[in-house]
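Section 5: illustrative case.
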């Protein structure tokens, strides 16, 4: 073996690479690969952040697209109301006995209630029987009712429109006068009149108001008058006579306004109209065969389905007697509520049917309040500031809706004005203005009360009692 050289070039130990570990020597503290590890961690962190950001963007985009598809494909109806269960059980669900006298035949016979009128067969069915929340169903149903009284209809000989205004809460303005004009100039001149009721503190003020002096001058005292409300006098002979609840009032005129509705209709009979309403000019006599309140909106609220912004009852109606009985004997109303309004009508309606008595009718919501439904099928916002430049067919559809109904309930909003090019001015107020001018011309010329042809539409049809 002397002089022999052994080469280890081809010799390799297991698990050991002949080229080393492929790392460059570290220049930091003599630890090989330390700088490379740090850089790799940094790169991994950056890659993770970039990946997470991309993932968030993708998820956000999917959410937006999914939300858009869901909104396009589905309707979402959400309404959350909280009711005390004990209050529901005692106030809403309970059906205590009716008064022992209101529907007693001898009591009715001694009253001024016109049973011949109330019990006469009706030509017109006012109650649709379903909610009518879809499309134009409600407005189409309104179109099925005759435009003028039919021969053979038994109608009141004279209809009084009643309204209530407290000038101590808000001064009278042109907005309220427009309602009065829409009643006086556009309804039958021979068969209708208007009484504006007010509290004692403002009676003289209203009578002397330049706005109302002009109405007195134009329409005369037989068709328009301002009267002081005396709740104690109107309540005589009713279940509320002498009750301390007669003096209840609030700064919204809700409690006293709801009470005045029932007392005035009990004493005088006729149609109640809230002052935050505008009439369209459609002949309201065709609704006079039945006594009625209105549906609150197209949703039929479970505990608040009815509204009295417009309501029709005959003088000394036993229905009103039952309402006054409930006011006198149920729990006192809560301030700032509709306990003597919507809640009262619903309670009495349920008590009537529970005792086998045919209740008063309920007008579909759009007859007097077509704004109270979904955006896709209701009347537009009366106070919308934008110009209603409708596309082809849209303006005609809106005009048809307005022509089919009798009133538009504006739900207060006293601080808002109708825009000059809005649909209320175009489709309603311009008609009111034209009717007032015609009325003034006819009066000055000494022509007959129905010379304008609108207020006298259908005159002579129907029998009046």
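Designed sequence:
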């Amino acid at each position: 073996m002397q002089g022999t050289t052994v080469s280890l070039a081809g010799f390799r130990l297991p698990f050991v690479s002949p080229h080393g570990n492929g790392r460059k020597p570290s220049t930091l503290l003599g630890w090989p690969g330390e700088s490379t590890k740090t850089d790799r961690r940094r790169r991994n962190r950056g890659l993770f952040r970039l990946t997470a950001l991309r993932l968030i963007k993708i998820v956000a985009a999917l959410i937006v697209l999914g939300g858009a598809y869901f909104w396009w494909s589905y309707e979402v109806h959400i309404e959350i109301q909280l009711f005390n269960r004990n209050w529901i059980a005692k106030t809403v669900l309970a059906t205590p006995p009716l008064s022992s006298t209101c529907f007693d035949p001898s009591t009715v016979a001694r009253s001024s209630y016109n049973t011949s009128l109330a019990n006469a067969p009706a030509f017109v069915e006012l109650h649709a029987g379903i909610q009518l929340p879809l499309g134009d169903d409600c407005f189409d149903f309104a179109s099925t009712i005759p435009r003028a009284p039919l021969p053979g209809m038994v109608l009141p000989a004279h209809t009084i429109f009643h309204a209530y205004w407290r000038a101590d809460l808000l001064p009278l303005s042109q907005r309220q006068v427009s309602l009065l004009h829409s009643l006086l100039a556009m309804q039958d001149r021979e068969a209708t009149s208007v009484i504006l009721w007010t509290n004692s503190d403002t009676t003289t003020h209203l009578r002397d108001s330049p706005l109302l002096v002009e109405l007195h001058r134009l329409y005369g005292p037989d068709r328009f008058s301002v009267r002081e409300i005396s709740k104690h006098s109107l309540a005589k002979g009713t279940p509320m006579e002498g009750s301390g609840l007669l003096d209840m009032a609030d700064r919204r005129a809700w409690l006293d306004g709801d009470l005045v509705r029932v007392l005035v209709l009990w004493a005088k009979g006729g149609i109640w109209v809230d002052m935050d309403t505008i009439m369209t000019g459609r002949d309201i006599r065709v609704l006079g065969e039945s006594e009625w309140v209105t549906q609150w909106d197209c949703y039929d609220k479970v505990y608040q389905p009815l509204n009295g912004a417009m309501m029709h009852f005959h003088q000394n109606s036993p229905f009103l007697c039952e309402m006054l009985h409930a006011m006198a004997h149920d729990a006192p109303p809560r301030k700032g509520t509709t306990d003597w309004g919507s809640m009262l009508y619903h309670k009495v309606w349920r008590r009537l049917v529970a005792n086998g008595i045919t209740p008063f009718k309920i007008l579909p919501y759009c007859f007097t309040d077509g704004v109270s439904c979904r955006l896709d099928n209701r009347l537009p916002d009366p106070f919308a500031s934008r110009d209603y430049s409708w596309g082809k067919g849209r303006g005609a559809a809106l005009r048809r809706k307005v022509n089919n109904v009798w009133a538009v309930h504006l739900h207060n909003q006293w601080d808002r004005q109708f825009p000059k090019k809005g649909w209320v001015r175009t489709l309603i107020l311009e008609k009111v203005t034209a009717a007032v001018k015609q009325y003034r011309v006819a009066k000055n010329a000494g022509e007959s009360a129905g010379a304008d042809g609108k207020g006298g539409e259908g005159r002579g049809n129907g029998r009046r009692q």
